[in-house]
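Note to self: keep these together.
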Amino acid sequence: MRGAPGSALRAALPLLGAAVSLCAGLQCVCQLCEHTNFTCHTEGACWASVMLTNGREEVVKSCVSLPELNAQVFCHSSKNITKTECCYTDFCNNITLRLPLGECRSAGSACPARGRRRRPPSVEEPPCEGSLVGSGKTLKDLIYDMTTSGSGSGLPLLVQRTIARTIVLQEIVGKGRFGEVWHGKWCGEDVAVKIFSSRDERSWFREAEIYQTVMLRHENILGFIAADNKDNGTWTQLWLVSEYHEQGSLFDYLNRGTVTVEGMVRLALSVASGLAHLHMEIVGTQGKPAIAHRDLKSKNILVKRNETCAIADLGLAVKHDSVLNTIDIPQNPRVGTRRYMAPEILDDAMNTNIFESFKRADIYSLGLVYWEIARRCPVGGITEEYQLPYYDLVPSDPSIEDMRRVVCEQKLRPSIPNQWQSCEALRVLGRLMRECWRASGAARLTALRVKKTISQLCVPEDCKA
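Structure:
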């Protein structure tokens, strides 16, 4: 009996040591931490993962922070794609992790031990059991958790890759100069997949970078989910995964039918809200730089199920660092859409050293988008057919010179019908358009002013169709 207290103490020592270790923070193996002798420290967990990447097993070892641990996105394996382990003692992730033999085969590939190059996994159904949503979390839940408890800039890279590699493409829903947009499914949830050609890698990288800006997430900006580069055996596909909006672009939506006055106000307010958030700088450690879009048009705005808009296509966007007063302009040969270019861009008079210049050019484009929306609102028994801005003044694919002649030399703008004066909402929107597309950028309204003006609009009885 005399030895009991000593043995109890000896038994308690490992627990005490673990507790002290947890208080001081874990030390883990970190493959990317060359500057700290391949070691990292965390209050969360040590992490090891093996992932099927382009027919090869790719092993990653590092630290998982406490917010990432709380968000429950790192410590779940995904059938066929990843095997992951989290542990809670010093250097416990210094282990050899392999995908099981059966999982290699079910992924339609030879196993790495056989030394042959494998085809990328072919997945019939999204492998949801025991995956990232093993805790019942949806994509929105995961993104919300990481936005609020993590960096505020979206999902961790490995989680993005895991999601992207378990998406089943359904059908193509659009094509552009960058590539294609597909409707996809991930664990029963709808997603949109924008697939860039490898020659447009700069646009893909830039758009993924902008979407992952801290605090960018907003209900009127397209919800980014993941970015990944996928090797299909012949060439590399560059994927950008986002929320899926079945109504398509504002261009498609306006082509399909008319809008009520209430619907017009809702569309216009949501676009202004998204642009105001994009343009706004949020100061602080979890702040956000001011961002200008540079290619705002109806084809780059999506319509959500609730008939509000989400601004998309941020591949040409520029960021402003107010501390250093520098403008981060993408190294991209692409320019915006000629039909929507502000006069100062068309005649090469814009001062690109002043960030406000880019925001003012966005406001000009916003005025043209409002004209497209307003024309589809019946008033006084008259419904205008859908048309692009300047449809009656330039060719279907206008050159810079075509647009410069009309916008800068002749100083023409889209016509505002007289019947708009009989409806308060259309009268206000018409006035906003004129103030958005003024020749002088400095004389244009800000996105916040546009948003406030539209938000004060009531829809009187005489406007209702």
